Amino acid sequence: MNFKFENDLENNLMLLTVTTKLRKKLNQPRVTCGFKKAKILIEENYSCPETHTLGGCLNRRQVLDNTDPAGCAVTWKFNLIPIEKDVKKTPAPRRSRTKKTSVKKSKDD
């Protein structure tokens, strides 16, 4: 099983391509790779560019399977979120809370 990472910074995407050889005989091992294994590959082998952070996956429901010729190569797409530098975040203004007091009328009035 081979894998390759590609950064497309113009479109803010990271592409993970996983490929394997086709299984031709039953005595050859079957290789499958779903999103969980792809996520492990990213955690162990991928480092984001300094200008971006890794976002969510755009197409999770794919499975690499070496028994099908169409399933021997799969590409997962992930968002790359640009990091904004020198931007000061202003906190939201807080609402002041006042306690309402009720005035009781006396029976004498």
Radius of gyration: 27 Å
Low-confidence stretches: none
Helical run tally: 1
Number of domains in the coordinates? 1
- Shape by Cα distribution: elongated
N-to-C series of helices and strands: EEEHEEE
Mean pLDDT reading:
87
Characterize the biggest β-sheet.
Answer: 4 strands, antiparallel
> Which strands sit side by side, in order, in the main sheet?
1-2-6-4
Strand fraction equals 25-35%
Helical content class: 10-25%
Characterization of the model:
- The chain is mainly β.
- It has one domain (2-82).
- The chain is built from one helix and six strands.
- It has one helix at residues 35-45, and strands at 2-8, 13-19, 32-33, 52-57, 64-65, 73-82.
- Strand 1 and strand 2 form a beta hairpin.
- The longest helix is centred in the middle third of the chain and has 11 residues, at 35-45.
- The chain is elongated and about 100 Å long.
- The termini are far apart.
Identify the notable features of this structure and list them briefly.
109 residues, mainly beta, 31% strand, two-stranded antiparallel ribbon, four-stranded antiparallel sheet, 1 helix, 10% helix
Which secondary structure elements does this structure contain, and how are they paired or packed?
Blueprint: E1 2-8, E2 13-19, E3 32-33, H1 35-45, E4 52-57, E5 64-65, E6 73-82
Antiparallel strand pairs: 1-2, 2-6, 3-5, 4-6
Structure summarized in a few sentences:
The protein is mostly beta strands. The protein has one domain (2-82). Helices cover 10% and strands 31% of the residues.
